[in-house]
Automatic annotation (TrEMBL):
Alphabetical UniProt keywords: Signal
Signal peptide region: 1-18
The protein's name: Outer membrane protein beta-barrel domain-containing protein
InterPro entries: DUF6646
UniProt-listed Pfam families: DUF6646
Amino acid sequence: MKKTFSLLLLSFASLINAQAFKGKGDIKFDIAANIQNGGSGIRFSNDYGLGENISIGIVGSYLLSVSRDEMDNKPDFGDRVDVKARFNANLGNVFKIDEKVDIYPGLDLGLRNFGAHLGLRYFFTEGFGVVSEIGFPIAKYKPEATGFERLNNQFVFNIGASFNL
């Protein structure tokens, strides 16, 4: 039964026409699980297309599950939250891959660091798809961060849903 359902879902998804990035005026909203060393949480991002292959946006993340430190302390709200402005180069049409796929490298400037990210979106329909993204700091504001300051200053993996507004 599982194989039949998977085959039907794959067949249905391949018949749907969707476009991952349309260019100027295109708005994407993502909600994803944030997975990193010492914690996991939720991440929201919003990207707005400025041109055919350029978008800007904002990202907010909040760590829900965080390991306690050596002294058995829990992190404060400020240790769990991060907000970033971002710039993306949407390269799906540059590489001439399927319209449903968008590959986007980019840079972000946040409360804790200056970093880079690489993401991939795949749209099943005009308004719904999946997103996966990795991010890492290039320059940390506190290079010798200790304790909970390290939470939002490391390699991060995100996976979730994407909506084309």
